[in-house]
């Protein structure tokens, strides 16, 4: 008995080739070898066709990403796919779950594909910063045409079985038992010469103008990421080169991208996205069942959280101060769900069902039967403590109490409650039904079981949860505030905001810091600065411009002006003499000499401060691993995934270089910055932050 993950069973006139490599049948070396052997077995056996099926939850989900950093080992997937294609007997791929990347490429080497109705097929390599390297860019366009192949490969978004049938990617969609359906199909093609992909350049070829239009679209969506264009160019080869030459060029393109920093960063993000959900403190802790949740507060945040909870299939009681306010909260949830209906993500009946699971209420007694409460009320300690006191009384002693505070200390909120072990922070990001990040904040007494429950709930809500300890702003906003501070310093020194916003956008962030403040509104920052004013260290440089804007009632887009001004109803930031004047005045009062920073220096300084603060957060144990910080920034703040997050970006840039930049920032404003000892240590070790991920 062999222990190969690929087995061949003879079933009358068919060979059933089964791949069994849990959890997702990735194409590890043993699988490639097994498939290669299986082709020989099928050739030699007295059968008329072969059915390729997978055990477990999915068809082959692609190459084994863990093998990317190892030396490639023969047989390579391209060869194995070629062997299947050249077999003298037809192969039928029976697809269930997700046929992704090398998995779909293996299926493309088969002569026919049949799929379960629920199956999905895609070439998501672009999300890993690479291109499909086993024939995907050559075979797919020959089957589905240029436009559909460009769409599928450059976006990486998989298609449904029904769509695949329309595109000619699958021959048959099987309702009921997939293997039986595939066998029936296979018997119908026994004796037929296996139809191989045409080796001539694909046809019909789009015109030059059509290619140019498609390329421009891909480039725009890529926003600095290189692999979408690499994919595009390789697809175009399918229309000028024969299959073998196209495959060779594809292989070369693949090797270049695989070794790129962007691919390294994206692979890190792939594994970090999974690891972030499993912090050590919850290992072995059993999450509790959560069926009913009370949301306190029906404002923007509360209604967003309620929407997301409903979409996760939970019952929600929304508690407000009055019946009218509760009704307004209910209406906000309805608006959120309506927009999901409009986008085709929810049916009208689906919406009605979710709305029926929502109960607006105007008294805390309504929280009685809930398993968990999330508080999303005004950011004020007294208010929050009152809410928690009322929940403590209304709910069972074991029910979990979560606060959505972004700045207040959960330990203070929990103080005096019957059972502070059940208090946890769940910091959502606005709009909460859209943004993926939730910081799960571990207060002094939060139990591992409560933390595990918060993580499980976040997963149910399809959110990315990251564990944070208690500090001002937790991981994300604390880093944001340091980053804003250095941007403020550069702004005051340069007497300008536009070049800073531009440099940050060019780095790949969706928005520059000043534009972002205008979008989010300047009020919260203002309130925070006032809150922290009594304890502010006078040695730390303080830039007053934002305060001047707020005093003038300029709170951002909503008020028509903030850092920029906005025409009525428009979102385009326009430069504004008021802001310019305020900057000049502030700089003069502070006695700052005018300086210039080029785009590269702006970007490096902003990143150095972000990374320095991240290192400090690690050193203090607020984040357990660099990857937790990376995920917070990617999922909550639009940090470009293809840069891997700030800590990964530090490794890619070279931590010693980041340290040198940080030292330059600190030297310019003595007393304003602490260069993190951990940053120094990691720079000296030469091993990078990744080493601390464990
Ligand atoms: N390689 C290695 N490990 C993988 C893996 C892969 N391709 N896919 C998943 N895993 C691990 C994952 O880390 C997790 O591990 C466990 O499997 C379950 O995954 C030549 C070069 C298939 C839709 O990009 O999209 O083919 O955390 O939690 O939610 O052109 O995994 O349990 O230790 O995500 O049910 C292209 C990536 C590769 C697919 C399943 N393929 N995977 O989702 O489970 S490149 C992909 C996924 C390629 C060729 C090129 C999803 C999934 P752990 P999970 P899931």
From TrEMBL:
Residues 293-465 form the 3-hydroxyacyl-CoA dehydrogenase NAD binding domain. Pathway: Lipid metabolism; fatty acid beta-oxidation. Residues 473-566 form the 3-hydroxyacyl-CoA dehydrogenase C-terminal domain. Its main location: other. GO terms for biological process: fatty acid beta-oxidation. Transmembrane segments: none annotated. It catalyses: a (3S)-3-hydroxyacyl-CoA + NAD(+) = a 3-oxoacyl-CoA + NADH + H(+). It is found in: Peroxisome. It comes from the Bacteria. Pfam families: 3HCDH (PF00725), 3HCDH_N (PF02737), ECH_1 (PF00378). GO terms for molecular function: (3S)-3-hydroxyacyl-CoA dehydrogenase (NAD+) activity; enoyl-CoA hydratase activity; isomerase activity; NAD+ binding. Coiled coil: none annotated. Keywords: Fatty acid metabolism, Isomerase, Lipid degradation, Lipid metabolism, Lyase, Multifunctional enzyme, NAD, Oxidoreductase, Peroxisome. Belongs to the enoyl-CoA hydratase/isomerase family. In the N-terminal section; belongs to the enoyl-CoA hydratase/isomerase family. Monomer. This is 3-hydroxyacyl-CoA dehydrogenase. It comes from Pikeienuella piscinae. The lineage of its organism: Bacteria, Pseudomonadati, Pseudomonadota, Alphaproteobacteria, Rhodobacterales.
């Amino acid at each position: 008995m062999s222990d190969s993950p690929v087995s061949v069973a003879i079933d009358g006139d068919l060979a059933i080739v089964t791949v069994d490599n849990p959890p997702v049948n990735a194409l590890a070396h043993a699988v490639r070898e097994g498939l290669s052997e299986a082709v020989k077995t099928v050739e030699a056996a007295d059968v008329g066709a072969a059915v390729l099926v997978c055990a477990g939850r999915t068809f082959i989900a692609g190459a084994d990403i863990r093998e990317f950093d190892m030396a490639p080992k023969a047989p390579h997937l391209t060869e194995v796919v070629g062997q299947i294609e050249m077999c003298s007997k037809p192969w039928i791929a029976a697809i269930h779950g997700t046929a992704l990347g090398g998995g779909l490429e293996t299926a493309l080497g088969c002569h026919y594909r049949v799929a379960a109705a629920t199956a999905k097929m895609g070439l998501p390599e672009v999300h890993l910063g690479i291109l499909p390297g086993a024939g995907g860019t050559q075979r797919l366009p020959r089957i589905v045409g240029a436009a559909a192949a460009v769409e599928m490969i450059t976006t990486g978004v998989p298609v449904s079985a029904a769509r695949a049938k329309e595109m000619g990617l699958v021959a048959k969609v099987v309702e009921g038992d997939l293997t039986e359906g595939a066998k029936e199909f296979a018997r119908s093609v026994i004796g037929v010469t296996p139809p191989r992909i045409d080796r001539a350049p694909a046809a019909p070829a789009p015109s030059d103008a059509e290619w140019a239009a498609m390329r421009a679209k891909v480039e725009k969506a890529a926003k600095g990421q290189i692999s979408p264009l690499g994919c595009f160019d390789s697809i175009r080869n399918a229309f000028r080169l024969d299959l073998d030459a196209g495959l060779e060029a594809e292989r070369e393109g693949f090797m270049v991208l695989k070794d790129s920093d962007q691919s390294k960063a994206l692979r890190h993000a792939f594994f970090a996205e999974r690891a972030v959900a499993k912090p050590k403190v919850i290992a072995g802790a059993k999450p509790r069942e959560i069926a009913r949740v009370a949301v306190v507060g029906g404002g923007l945040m509360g209604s967003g959280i309620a929407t997301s909870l409903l979409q996760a299939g939970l019952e929600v009681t929304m508690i407000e101060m009055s019946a009218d306010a509760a009704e307004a909260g209910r209406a906000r949830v309805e608006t959120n769900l309506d927009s999901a209906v409009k986008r085709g993500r929810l049916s009208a009946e689906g919406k009605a069902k979710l709305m029926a699971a929502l109960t607006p209420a105007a008294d805390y007694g309504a929280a009685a039967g809930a398993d968990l409460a999330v508080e999303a009320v005004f950011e004020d300690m007294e208010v929050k403590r009152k809410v928690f006191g009322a929940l403590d009384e209304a709910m069972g002693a074991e029910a979990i109490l979560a606060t959505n505070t972004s700045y207040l200390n959960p330990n203070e909120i929990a103080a005096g409650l019957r059972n502070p072990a059940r208090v946890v922070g769940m910091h959502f990001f606005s709009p909460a039904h859209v943004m993926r990040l939730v910081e799960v904040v571990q207060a002094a007494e939060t139990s591992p079981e409560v933390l595990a429950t918060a993580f499980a709930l976040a997963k149910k809500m399809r959110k990315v949860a990251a564990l944070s300890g208690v500090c001002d702003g937790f991981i994300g906003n604390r880093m944001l505030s340091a980053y804003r501070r250095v941007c403020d310093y550069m702004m005051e020194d340069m007497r300008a905001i536009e070049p800073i916003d531009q440099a940050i956008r060019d780095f790949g962030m969706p928005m520059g810091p000043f534009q972002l403040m205008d979008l989010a509104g300047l009020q919260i920052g203002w309130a925070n600065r006032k809150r922290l004013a009594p304890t502010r260290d006078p040695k730390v440089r303080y830039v007053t411009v934002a305060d001047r804007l707020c005093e003038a009632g300029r709170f951002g887009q909503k008020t028509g002006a903030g850092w920029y001004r906005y025409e009525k109803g428009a979102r385009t930031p326009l430069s504004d003499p008021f802001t310019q004047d305020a900057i000049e005045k502030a700089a003069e009062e502070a006695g700052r000499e005018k300086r210039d920073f080029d785009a590269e220096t702006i970007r490096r300084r902003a990143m150095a401060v972000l990374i320095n603060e991240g290192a400090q957060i690690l050193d203090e144990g607020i984040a357990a691993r660099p990857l937790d910080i990376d995920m917070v920034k990617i999922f909550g703040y639009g940090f470009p995934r293809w840069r891997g997050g700030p800590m990964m970006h530090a490794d890619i840039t070279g931590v010693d270089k980041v340290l040198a930049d940080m030292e330059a920032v600190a030297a310019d404003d003595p007393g304003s910055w602490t260069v993190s000892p951990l940053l120094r240590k990691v720079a000296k070790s030469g091993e990078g932050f990744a080493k601390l991920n464990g």
